[in-house]
Amino acid sequence: MFWRLFDTSTLNLWNRLGYSVSVPFFQQQIRRDDFEKPEAPVNNTSATSAKITNTRETPQLLVATLIATVTFAAGFTIPGGLKSDGKAVLDGSAYFKVFMCSNIVSFFLPAFVIYNELLQESFLAIQTVALVLRFSVGGLVFAFFTGFLAVQDNKSRWSPTENMLRLLFSMLFYAFMFSSWNYNPHLARLKREGNICLQDRKI
């Protein structure tokens, strides 16, 4: 009479769980091989490719936006300030002219990257975008050095030895930046997985 209160599905559920459903007993019903089952292989579908593309492009957009913002602000808050007529105080300085050229290059390169990434079908490869961002970062560092030298007095200019050390540091920075361009762990992993094509950009 008691078992008539329950339907067949409820009895089957009880048979699977056991008559005792306490936590220790229920944990014993979980077999070790349940955790050792191999995961299903991830197919190289369009959804997977789109996910990898978004993961890759998000930091690129972030870096490009930050560089464009900094260089845009530096183009109006120039070193040395402005005169009463609106012209730059250091207009005649060679360092200031190099600073402005480096700042302009560092602004337009990430702006071009942002435009490329916002298109429905990007026309630049991932490696090309990374190279453009490296050039913009290098120009940003060069603009910092030239802007720093532009605001220095002639009497407080660095000695030739200090200038050589600064030039050596800049060369080492560029060498380190471009030596890592040929090897990218993310791209190497994608190549090993089967030359994934991301938005018509063949890796």
From TrEMBL:
This is Ankyrin-3-like. InterPro entries: PGG_dom. The chain crosses the membrane at residues 61-82, 94-119, 131-151, 163-183. GO terms for cellular component: membrane. Residues 58-150 form the PGG domain. Keywords: Membrane, Transmembrane, Transmembrane helix. It comes from Prunus yedoensis var. nudiflora.
